Predict the 3D structure of the following.
Amino acid sequence: MDEDEQRGRRDGPPHGWRNGPPWRNRRDEERGPRRPWLSTVLLTVFVLGGSTFAAHAQEGQREPLDIFARVLLVAASGLLLWRLRHPVAVVFGTSAATMVYLGAGYPYGPVFLTVALACFSAVVAGHRRAAWAALGMLWAGHVLVAHWLYRWLPPSGDPAASWGQEIVIATWMVAIVAVSELARTRREQWAREGAERAQAARRRADEERLRIARELHDVLAHSISVINVQAGVGLALLDTDPEQARTALTTIKAASKEALGEVRQVLDTLRTPGAAPRAPAPGLDRLPELIEQAAGAGLTVEVEGAPPRLAPGTDLAAFRIVQEALTNVVRHSGSRHARVRLDHDAGALRLRIDDDGPATGADAGGSGNGLAGMRERAAALGGTIEAGPRADGGFRVLAVLPLKVKPKPKEADR
């Protein structure tokens, strides 16, 4: 057990218990969202107070508030405690309680706020038809009471309501539905944008992971191939030609030092994302150095042509493609001679790497991560890679890289 774990045991709960024991967290998830106690209590107080004020204002026109009326108001408001877990039942329950309240002749007032909030919660939760049906039921019930059943319902002597009042109530309900639908649309849009941002972040992380994997593969494959060949030479000549063995060990030291430096640079980008690299990325200007390393591995390389001025990304991709192709010649070809040809025009750079074979194994030319990495590098720039055996023997890698790289579309435009 390390010091951090011991300190965590002394100073507080385990890391996974920051939000409580795991069994309590699982129980909370099974129960669903917490009940909105504070907002419900505040709304209940407001509805009771506002209805009392409305009763004084409508005295003689509607029935005074009694115990039954206050029970209906508290029931309509109290149902809102379950609006997050059971929005459909709550919107129908509040509509029914409000309908009974109005049918009993009690004064108009803030009781409609309970229906509005229940409808809002149901629509935002995705139960649009249930919310519309509940509001339609409430409006139809009010029309029935105000224009037909009023003769038998309190208050006594109450005349039929005007149709203008029904239009006002219908307009109020339409406004509730409109606001609820707007909130639902915005919420879905925010959720969709959040999912798109998360997907874009995962895509960028995957692209960065693949880039780092390609860099490590290209650096290590080339350097270890050189080290492997030179180590074999050193072992073979250690007794018969110590001086040549010393040269092989010197080459091993130089290759391993360079590999360690490039691996350290890749790891530094992992530790400090977004920071500028300490050393410039390799490019085709280091082609003579690459040829010298290949010569240390026993491979003679002829170069034809000169590269144009390239963008940093294209320059790095071209260097890595040549490096991987020469590494594959060292590892998979019986030929100790390779040719690198560079051609370019106004639009593209063409790299051609040939060896005369024959292949020394099943993976002639490199059929694993190396070729896949080359194709990924070329595709990222809008270029192509063709690799395969030649008709006259040997193996050829042909890369075409555009000199002008098209910018990637923004995430929002995809």
Q: What stands out?
A: Residues 163-237 form the longest helix (75 residues). Strands lie at 300-304, 337-344, 348-355, 384-389, 395-402.
